[in-house]
Structure formats: structure tokens, C-alpha cells
Amino acid sequence: MAEFKNPTQQGGGDNKSLLVMMLVMVAVFFGLQMYKSKHNPQTVSPNQPTQSAAPTPGASPAAPDASVATPAQAATATPAIVAAAEATTTVENELYRITFTNRGAHVVSWQLKKYKDTDRKLPLDLVHDQAARQFGYPLSLYTYDAATTTALNQALYVPSATGTLASPSSLTFSYSGNGLTVTKTFTFDETYVLHADIAVTRNGAPVRALLSWPGGFGDEEDARSYAAAQLDTSTNGKADHVAFKKVIGGATLNGPFDWAGVSDLYFAAVFLPDQPDTATLATLHDQLDVAKAKHNNGLGQGNAPKGPLVVPILGAAIGDTSGHTLTRVYVGPKAVAVLKAIHASGSSVTLEPLLDFGFFGPIGKILFLALQFIQVHVASNWGWSIVILTLIINAILLPLRIKTMKSGLKMQRIQPQMDAIKNKYKGLKATDPKRNEMNAEIMQLQKDNGVNMFGGCIPTLIQMPLLFAFLYMLPKVVELRQAHWLWLPDLSSADPYHILPILMVVSQFLVQFYTPSPGVDPQQQKMMAFMMPAFSGYITWNYASGLALYWAIGNLFGIATQAVMNQTSLGREMREIAAKRARRKAGTGSGRAQTIQGRR
Question: How many CA atoms are closer than 13 Å to the CA of 17, on its beta-carbon side?
């Protein structure tokens, strides 16, 4: 953001518009923080009890399925199909390496080859091992009977292949015993999407067994990433994102679903049912103590707190009312290009809405696409791409800055006449009707001289949405995850040395210092000169360093352009008028101005 333009720099002794703009900016920031807290609340407190909220609209409490029999029922004469020992099968393509175990026929490792773990040495494994050991592994089965669920996920299935398979390929797990007959078939191609065919019967009757991602992702490593967990669904083309605090574990949501699943900041596990109209979704919400987890950025062994540290673990399971589940499964990054290419079954609906930039989403998306274009075609580094995009934005806004200065100069030229009008009505109470006459005279004077009293607000009004769009976009795009720039190891995380926030504070002060602000009350000018840098420093201190980079570069651009404009006839005249008014206010014909004026 190049500058917070003071709207009262044009308006004599009337300082109300400055306070209004400041209040608007603060209100928007904290309003967006409230909006964010509703969608991504803070991590669960260790002392907070488990939620027992009422079911969400459209959700029905989990209940035992009528078709599910207990394990105590007599088994039929179906021949037993049970593996003699545990074995693993690995399926891989250029994007992933998935390892299955025949113990439960589920996934124990889901590595994404294009993304690195916290140490940046190994491919990122999306299986949250600690959560999986406690709540279940990816592609395990979920039923409305705990004993049946345990039996299905502990059985030794017979795999159609062991060892390593290269995509495209197919892998089938079969099991029969204790009256249960299960077939789980997975088909793989060259994308992040696989297809699942799940059929479970007991004594010949279908069992409503749902394919699940029980919860968590392997990249979740700090409070921010856990708190970003959400349930994502799309019904008839309308996407919905539900924060973890509003997700009730064990609830069943009835379709139709274009797609449904869970995600965190950067990755998602989403089901795309073959039959959207008959699909049902079970929501899973658990809590996990990660105080002693290995990799969680300050929450781990070396810095582990004395007490428990409880975080939310979200999961989801998809099934079909017929008991036979056919669905595609997407497990991968929330990258725009990737999500846009994946369509729901028989629909034009894509997974693109999974990437949600919040209130200023449309602006954020445009900014990211522009940033991505620069990264691909101009600079190969995301940090330099942010720098270039910032310079382009500020260059586009430069004519508005010049127009603002011209408008301010016009205002200062008529300031003596405005002061005369105010003196004519001096002493009136705030409720006196004659004050309306004063305001009418001032407005007519401004109109006659082509002065727009809100002209100084235009650059700020344009730049504020851009700033807040960056605020919510930068920490969510997976492309910036672990993207480095000079000393910054990760543009989506805070500057570890706080160099950029400090530079941001200094540059913000210089913007206020160099920008001519004649007519502003000295105390108010001093307040703005220090309060605005402090406010912007507070925002960027522990936020994505990419935001601080954008803001600081914008400030430096503003300082440079303002220094040049101060040397023009326009700038010199503004300073002369400001100096005269300052001397007049001081009651002397000469002397030093008391306000902070624009410098050469």
C-alpha cells in the first residue's frame, strides 16, 4: 500500500474526514478479523470441553444403520477370504506415492512428490500419523456401529497385487469372514484423483459402509494450520465452507453433493460421488493432544507446554444410500490450476471453490492470477513477482495520486475564503440550524472552484480492498508455501527476523512525513505519523511475510514518487501555502510551521 492518504490535507481546519477514514480502516480490519474468526476460529483450548452443539441445518444425528448387524450374529457359509499375513502395496505416478496395507485395506502413507515436509528434505506425507493411529487411516471404512467399523478396519484383506504398481493401474482388496463380505477396488490414473468402488454385505444384506478420510493432514504443524481445518461441500454448484467449531462429529448430511470433504490451509481430501443425488456425508470431529508431536513448529518436544495442547481434527466419510459406494477421491493441493481441471460427476462444477479467499475473494483471485502470470512469464521467484506486481499496481494508481494533489491544491487556494465563512458563523452551537447555512456556503464555494472534498480519499478507498485481498490471499495459496525470497524462507509465514515489518513501520512513517498535509491539526498530524506505522507493524509482525513485502514496497514507491512530486510546481505551491497558513495560525508573519509538512 503506497500510503494512507490523509483526506483532510485539503480541507482547512476540518479534521473530521481524517478520523472517519481512520475509523473506517480499523472497522474494516477488525470486521474482517471477526469474519475470519467465524470461518477459521482459534485452536481449541486445552481446558475447553468437547462440543455438544445442536445439529447443523440439514444434518441428522448418527444412528445405527438398519442394515448393519452386530458381530454376534451367526456367519453364513460363505467361504472365508483372509490373508495369511500383513503386506503392503505401493501405487505411484509422477504426483504421488501411496502405500496401502492389507490390514484394513487402507492407506498408511500418501506422499506428494511435488511438496516437501517441514524439514524440506522428504516428500510431504499427507497422512497425519498421530491422528491416524488414534482415529483411523485414510480410505478406511466408517459405519454406524463401532464394532463393525473395527472389524472392517482390522481385517486382513487379500490384495490383488503387492509390491509397487505404476499408474494407470487398479488395486482390489477382498475379505470374507464372520458373515462380512467386503470388496474395495481403487483405480488410479496420472492425476491426483483416484476412483473407489466399495461394497460391504453381511449375510448377503448390504451394509452402509462409508469411505472415509478420518481426519487431519500431514502438513498441519502449528496452531494456525489446525485452526484452518474446515468442512467443504458443494450442492447444486453452491460451495460452502464450515469452520471446525461448527462441525458436529457423527452427524449425517444428506445429498445431493457435487463434492464434499475436508481441507486445511493448503491441502484437501475431497470425495466426488458418482451418484450425487443419493450420496450421504458423515462428519467427523475429534480432538488431539499434540503437545508432544514431533514436528509442529514450537508445539513439539523441545518447546512442549507442561499441560495438554488440544487441537481440532476434522474428517469426513462418503457413502451411498444403496450401500454400494462409487466415488472419485481427490487428495492433493488447493492449487487453482489443479482444482479448476477437476469436475464433479456429470457436471460443469469444479473443485475451484475449495480455495476460498474470504470476503474479498474475487479481488484476491484476480491478484493471485496476476501474480502467477508474472511468476511464470517474468520472474521465476514468487518474492520478485510480488515486488513487480506491487510496482505495477502503484504505477497504475499514480495518476490518482497526482489528481489528489491537484485537488488538494485547489482546496488550499480557497482555504482563506472557507475560513472567512467559518468565522462568519463562529460561536454557533452544534445544533444551531444556521450551521446548515454555513455548510451550504462552503459546499457551494467548493463547487464553484471545482473542488471535490472527497478527492483525497480515492487512492485509499482503492488501495484498502487490495490490501485486505492480499491479507487473506497470501497465507492460503499453496504456491507460496515454502517459497523463499532473499532471507525469507517462506512467503506464506511471518518474517523470522521481523526485518520486513520494521522496514514497513519506518517506510510508513516516511510516507506520512513526506506527504504534504497542510491544514491538518498539528496534534492530529503527529498522531497519524506514529499511529499508522504502529498499526501496520502490528498487522504484519506475525503475518505472512508476503503481505509485509507488498506493503513495504508500496510505501517505498510512494516515498520516491512523493519526493519527485514535491519538486514540481504543484508540490512547491502546496508547501508555500502550507507555510503561510502555519505562520498565520502561529500569529506571526514569519516563523517556523508547527505541523509536519512534506519534505523535499
Answer: 22
Considering the domain architecture, whether residues 114 and 162 belong to the same structural domain is answered as yes
Length of the chain: 600
For 404, half-sphere exposure in the C-beta direction (CA atoms, 13 angstrom radius) is 26
Give me the pLDDT at residue 512, please. 76
- Whether 276 and 158 map to the same domain: the answer is yes
- Does the residue 594 lie in any domain? no
| Residue 443: inside a domain | no
- Nearest-CA neighbor of 398 among 570, 568, 563, 561? 561
23 and 158 part of one domain = no
Q: Do 501 and 403 sit in the same domain of this protein?
A: yes
The C-alpha atoms of residue 94 and residue 112 are separated, in whole angstroms, by 9
Domain membership of residue 392 as a residue range: 7-30+368-414+449-586
Q: Are 540 and 548 in contact (CB under 8 A)?
A: yes
User: Identity (one letter) of the amino acid at 535?
Assistant: F
Cα separation, 33 vs 512, in Å, equals: 26
Q: Does 242 share its domain with 171? A: yes
Mapped onto helix, strand or coil, the DSSP state of residue 112 is: strand
Q: How far apart are the first and last CA of the chain?
A: 22
Cell (9 digits) for 546: 508476503
Q: 246-278 as b/e, with b when 16 or more CB fall inside 10 Å?
A: bbbbebbbebebbbbbbbbbbbbbbbbbbbbeb
pLDDT tens-digit readout, 355-394: 999 888 899 999 999 999 999 999 999 999 999 999 999 9
pLDDT score of 29: 57
Q: Considering the entire predicted model, what is its pTM?
A: 0.78
Identify whether residues 460 and 398 lie together within a single domain: yes
pLDDT in tens, 395-417: 998 888 787 777 777 777 777 78
Same domain, 204 and 247: yes
How far is Cα 436 from Cα 244, in angstroms, rounded to an integer? 53
Phi, psi angles (nearest 5°) of residue 550: -60, -45
Alpha-carbon dihedral sign for residues 502, 506, 511, 517: positive
Q: At 404, which helix (H) or strand (E)? A: helix 382-413
Q: Where are the alpha helices (DSSP H) in 176-249?
A: 223-227
3-state helix, strand, coil in the chain (%, to 5): 40, 25, 40
Q: 521 or 233: whose pLDDT is higher?
A: 233
